[in-house]
C-alpha cells in the first residue's frame, strides 16, 4: 500500500486538497495588493515592508478571530460563499478601530472532509471580504480532520496585520468629556450571539431555516446568514477626513460592554436607547426567547456594528461623510464625567 493510499484510507484526501487549491487561486489573486510578493502555494506569504517607509513611526497591529457557531447555519443551509465575509469582518474591524489600515490576512479552515468546491466557496467569501476591506489574502491552511469532524463540518479562523502611524493611534487617552458618540448601523446579527439565537429559534421554538418570517421579509436562514458588514474602508475614510478620538467594534458582549473598553476611567458614555430601533431580528429573538433587556443587550449588537467617539463640532461632517459612503449613522450619546471606572450605559 502506498503512502498516499494509506493516508486516503485514514480519511485524508490529498488530491482533493490539491484541487481545492486550484479552485481558490483566482479568488486569492483578486485580493493581491502591489506589496504582495510571490504567489499561492508557498510555505509563507510575503508582504514587502519597504512600503512602510512613508510612515514616520509605523506600528504594526494584529488581530485574530473566527466566526463562532454561525458556521453551523452555513453548513445546515449548504451555503458557504459568504461565511468568509464574516471572518474578514471580525478581523479587520477589530484592527481598524485603533486607526490601523489592514494590509494582509491569512486563514485557516479545518474540515471533516475536503470537498474542493465547498472549500473554494469559503475562500471566495474570504477573498470578497478582503476586497471590501482593501487588504490581501496572502496565504492559509486547509486541514482535513477525519474522525474529529463530521464530513460536512468545518470551522474557519484567521489573522490579519495592519499598520498605523504611532502618533495617530486612536484610543481612550484621546476621549474628552463632551465628545459625541456616533453609531453605525449593523447589517444584522453579524457573527456574534449565534449560540443564543440558535438555542432560541431553532432548538427552543423549533423553527426551520427555510421558514419564511414575515417580519424579516425573508426566510430565517437567509436572515441568519446575512454577512457581517465590513466597515474598514469607511472608518479609514472617516478618520482621514474628520477628527476621531476612539472607536469600538461591537461584537460579543454587546454595545455597552464593547464601548466601555475605550472609555477612560473618569468618564462614562451615556447612550440614548431612544435614538434607534433595533432591527426585526433582535426583537424577534428577544420576544420568542423571552429574554430580558439586560441579557440581550449583553449578547447581541442590537443593530449597532461600529461606534465612533469624536468632538461635538465634528458630528455633522462625520454623519455626512458616512452617509456619502452609504453607511447609516446617527448620534447615539455623549461622553460625560464620572467618578467610577470607565463605563457605557444605555438610558
TrEMBL record:
Signal peptide: none
Pathway participation: Purine metabolism; IMP biosynthesis via de novo pathway; 5-amino-1-(5-phospho-D-ribosyl)imidazole from N(2)-formyl-N(1)-(5-phospho-D-ribosyl)glycinamide: step 2/2
UniProt EC number: 6.3.3.1
PurM-like N-terminal domain mapped to chain residues: 56-164
One GO cellular component term noted in the UniProt record for this chain: cytosol
Catalytic activity: 2-formamido-N(1)-(5-O-phospho-beta-D-ribosyl)acetamidine + ATP = 5-amino-1-(5-phospho-beta-D-ribosyl)imidazole + ADP + phosphate + H(+)
Enzyme class (EC, first level): ligase
Principal subcellular localization: cytoplasm
One GO MF term: ATP binding
Keywords annotated in UniProt: ATP-binding, Cytoplasm, Ligase, Nucleotide-binding, Purine biosynthesis
Gene Ontology biological process terms in this record: 'de novo' IMP biosynthetic process; adenine biosynthetic process
Compartments reported by the entry: Cytoplasm
UniProt-listed CDD domains: PurM
Superkingdom classification of source: Bacteria
InterPro entries the UniProt entry points to: PurM-like_C_dom, PurM-like_C_sf, PurM-like_N, PurM-like_N_sf, PurM_cligase
Family: Belongs to the AIR synthase family.
Cited HAMAP family: AIRS
Protein name in UniProt: Phosphoribosylformylglycinamidine cyclo-ligase
Source organism (scientific name): Tessaracoccus lapidicaptus
Gene: purM
Amino acid at each position: 500500500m502506498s503512502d498516499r493510499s494509506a493516508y486516503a484510507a485514514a480519511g485524508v484526501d490529498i488530491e482533493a486538497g490539491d484541487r481545492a487549491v486550484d479552485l481558490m487561486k483566482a479568488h486569492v489573486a483578486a485580493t493581491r495588493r502591489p506589496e504582495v510578493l510571490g504567489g499561492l502555494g508557498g510555505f509563507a506569504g510575503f508582504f514587502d515592508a519597504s512600503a512602510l517607509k512613508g510612515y514616520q513611526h509605523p506600528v504594526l497591529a494584529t488581530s485574530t478571530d473566527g466566526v463562532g457557531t454561525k458556521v453551523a447555519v452555513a453548513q445546515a443551509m449548504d451555503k458557504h460563499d459568504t461565511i468568509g465575509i464574516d471572518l474578514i469582518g471580525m478581523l479587520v474591524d477589530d484592527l481598524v478601530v485603533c486607526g490601523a489600515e489592514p494590509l494582509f490576512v491569512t486563514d485557516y479552515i479545518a474540515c471533516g472532509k475536503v470537498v474542493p468546491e465547498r472549500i473554494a466557496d469559503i475562500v471566495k467569501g474570504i477573498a470578497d471580504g478582503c476586497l471590501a476591506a482593501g487588504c490581501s489574502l496572502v496565504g492559509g491552511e486547509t486541514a482535513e480532520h477525519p474522525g474529529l469532524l463530521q464530513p460536512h463540518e468545518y470551522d474557519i479562523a484567521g489573522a490579519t496585520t495592519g499598520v498605523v502611524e504611532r502618533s495617530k493611534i486612536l484610543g481612550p487617552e484621546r476621549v474628552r468629556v463632551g465628545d459625541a458618540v456616533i453609531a453605525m448601523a449593523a447589517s444584522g446579527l453579524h457573527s456574534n450571539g449565534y449560540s443564543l439565537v440558535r438555542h432560541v429559534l431553532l432548538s427552543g421554538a423549533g423553527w426551520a431555516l427555510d421558514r419564511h418570517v414575515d417580519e424579516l421579509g425573508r426566510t430565517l436562514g437567509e436572515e441568519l446568514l446575512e454577512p457581517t458588514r465590513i466597515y474598514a474602508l469607511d472608518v479609514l475614510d472617516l478618520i482621514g477626513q474628520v477628527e476621531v478620538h476612539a472607536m469600538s467594534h461591537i461584537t460579543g458582549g454587546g454595545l455597552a460592554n464593547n464601548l466601555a473598553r475605550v472609555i477612560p476611567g473618569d468618564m462614562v458614555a451615556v447612550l440614548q436607547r431612544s435614538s434607534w430601533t433595533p432591527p426585526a431580528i433582535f426583537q424577534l429573538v428577544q420576544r420568542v426567547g423571552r429574554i430580558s433587556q439586560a441579557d440581550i443587550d449583553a449578547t447581541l449588537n442590537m443593530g449597532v456594528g461600529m461606534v465612533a467617539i469624536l468632538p461635538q463640532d465634528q458630528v455633522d461632517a462625520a454623519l455626512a461623510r458616512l452617509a456619502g459612503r452609504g453607511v447609516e449613522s446617527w448620534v447615539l450619546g455623549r461622553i460625560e464625567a464620572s467618578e467610577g471606572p470607565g463605563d457605557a450605559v444605555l438610558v
